Amino acid sequence: MKSNAFVLSALALLVVVADLAGQVIKVAGAGEGYASEKIEVFLLSDPITARLNPVTVVKCDSAGSFAFEIPATERYTTLYLKSGTYMFKILVSAGKEYNVSLPPFVPIKPEDSGNPFFSPATLIPFVTNDSADINNLAGQFDKRFFEVMTGVAERVANKTKLNEIPRLLESLNTVTGLSEDKFYRDYVTFRMIMLNAVSYGEYPGRKEDSVMINMRFYPENPAYTDLIGYLFRDYFRVLLSGPEARHLEAAIKKSSLAGCEEVFLKDGKIVNRELGHYVVLLNMYNGFYNGLFDAGILSRMLDSAATNGATRYIRDLASTLKENVFRMKKGSPLPQFSLPDTSGKVVTPATYRDKYLLIVFIGGTGQETLSELSLLKSWYEKYREKLALAVIVAGDEYGKISGYFRQRGYRWNFLDASGAPFITNQFEIRLLPGFVLADPEGRLAEDYCPLPSENLEGLIARLKGPG
Question: Both 350 and 442 in a single domain?
Answer without folding.
Answer: yes
